[in-house]
Amino acid sequence: MRISSFRISTSILAAASMLFAASAVAQNTAPIKERQELMESNGDSAKAASAMIKGEQPFDAAKAKQIFNDIHGVAMKFGDYFPEDSKTGNETEAAPAIWEQPEEFEAALTKFQEESATAMEASVEDLESFRQQFGMVAENCKGCHEDFRIDDD
C-alpha cells in the first residue's frame, strides 16, 4: 500500500506546526525560579530583621549589616530575571504591570537598589538605627509588591 506524497507532506507540515506552536507558548521558567529564590532570600532576611526588631533575637550589629548586604545583593540581581517569555508559569507572582509599565518597574527597582545601598552603608550601631534603616527598605518592598506582584492571599 502506497501513501501519497501529499499525505506525507501534509503530516510533516502538521507536526512541524504543532511543534512550533508549542514552542511559541512555552514559558521560560528558569528566570521565574531565580527571582523566586531571590525573593525567598529577601524573606529570610526580613524574618531575621523582624526577630531582632521584636526582641525575639538580641540585636547584633554584624547580623544587621549582613541583612542589609544580602538585601542589596538581591536588589542588584533581581531586575535581570524578567524576560518577555517569563510572564507566566512556575507559579509566578510577577504582575503583568512589570511588562506593561517597564519604566515604572525600572524606577521601583532603582529605588530598591539605592535604598538598600544606603541601608548597607549606614552606620547601624544599635537597635533604633537598625529599625529606622530597615523600615525604609521594608517600605520600598511593600510599594513594589503592591504595584508589581500578584497577591494570591
Task: Give an account of the 3D structure.
The protein has 153 residues and is mainly alpha-helical. The chain has one domain: Four Helix Bundle (Hemerythrin (Met), subunit A) (Up-down Bundle). Helices cover 72% and strands 0% of the residues. The protein has 6 helices and no strands. The radius of gyration is 23 Å and the shape is elongated.
Structural class determined from secondary elements: mainly alpha
Number of domains: 1
CATH architecture: Up-down Bundle
Strand content: under 5%
- Give average pLDDT, whole number: 87
Specify the number of helices.
Answer: 6
CATH superfamily: Cytochrome c/b562
Computed CA radius of gyration, to the nearest angstrom: 23 Å
Helix content: over 70%
For the termini, the CA-CA separation is 61 Å
GO molecular function: electron transfer activity; heme binding; iron ion binding
Keywords: Electron transport, Heme, Iron, Metal-binding, Signal, Transport
Binding site for heme c: 141, 144-145
Organism: Fulvimarina pelagi HTCC2506
